[in-house]
Amino acid sequence: MAAATNEPLAALATHALGFVKAGDVVGLGSGRAAGAFVRALAARVRDGLRARGVPTSDETERLARELGIDLVGLEADIELTVDGADEVDGRLNLIKGHGGALVRERIVAAASRRQIILITSDKLVETLGARGPLPVEVMPFAVPLCRRRLENLELKPTLRMQSERPFVTDNFNVIFDCATGPIEDPARLEREIRAIPGVIDTGLFLGTADMVVVADGGIVRELVRSSR
Ligand code: A5P
């Protein structure tokens, strides 16, 4: 995970710290923005703030442990989760998972009272799918079937690779990155993909974010969803 030398990410992380109260259990997202938040939270914990974390990936778990944040599991009452996203539309629907942590990110977000997303303004889109692929996590056994079914949906699936081998998630699954193009009806697409046997989850996070904090140059602003 990259160090938080990036100014917009540091500004987002500092802003998100304002939502953490003494005694909170905080869901710790994955990726660069979430990593910046973990670092900022750790600094606050070293200064005496009582807060514990629930990590959404092995990488975040390592980082949080290294920095001295106490970790707990889903049995805890999670006040808020702070995470990043790859795309955000005007309704605060998200595409996540470019870092490969989508399944645990969804589980921890679902177990939290609030999900707060940190992004730079380049990730704001009019229509989801406009910027990059939609990740779909799949059981290795089901890869041929899932590939065919995703192709039938005209989603142009590409098996994600790492060092010339299929990328393996923390849950020992693989990911198809789907070139969806702009997604006209994200809820329908979500249903169609989830109906494929072997699909574990998709990167479409619809209606999960309560707030998106956006860094635009030196300015940080909040986008708030009216109801969950
Ligand atoms: C991890 O699987 C993702 O969902 C990340 O939260 C997302 O890709 C955003 O990551 P960055 O903050 O690194 O752009």
Q: What's the level 1 CATH class of the largest domain?
A: Alpha Beta
Large-scale geometry: globular
Q: In terms of quaternary structure, what is this?
A: single chain
Domain count, please report it: 2
User: β content, as a range?
Assistant: 25-35%
**Proportion of helical residues:** 25-40%
Instruction: Report the bound ligands by name, code or SMILES.
Output: arabinose-5-phosphate
Sheet with the most strands, sense and barrel status: 7 strands, mixed
- Order the strands across the largest sheet as they lie in space: 3-2-1-4-7-15-16
Description:
The chain has 228 residues and is an alpha/beta fold. The protein folds into 2 domains: 8-124 and 206-224, Rossmann fold (3-Layer(aba) Sandwich), CATH 3.40.50.1360; 134-202, ACT domain (Alpha-Beta Plaits). The chain has 6 helices and 16 strands. The chain has helices at residues 7-17, 32-46, 58-67, 102-110, 143-152, 186-194; strands spanning 25-28, 52-55, 70-71, 78-84, 87-88, 94-95, 112-120, 134-138, 157-159, 161-162, 165-166, 174-178, 199-202, 204-205, 211-216, 219-224. It has a 7-stranded mixed sheet, with helices on both faces. Strands 9-12-8-13 form a 4-stranded antiparallel sheet, with helices on one face. Strands 5-6-14 form a 3-stranded antiparallel sheet, with no helix packed on it. Helix 1 (7-17) packs across helix 2 (32-46). The longest helix has 15 residues, at 32-46. It is globular and about 55 Å long. The model has no long low-confidence stretch (mean pLDDT 96). The protein binds arabinose-5-phosphate (A5P). Arabinose-5-phosphate binds next to helix 2, strand 4 and helix 4.
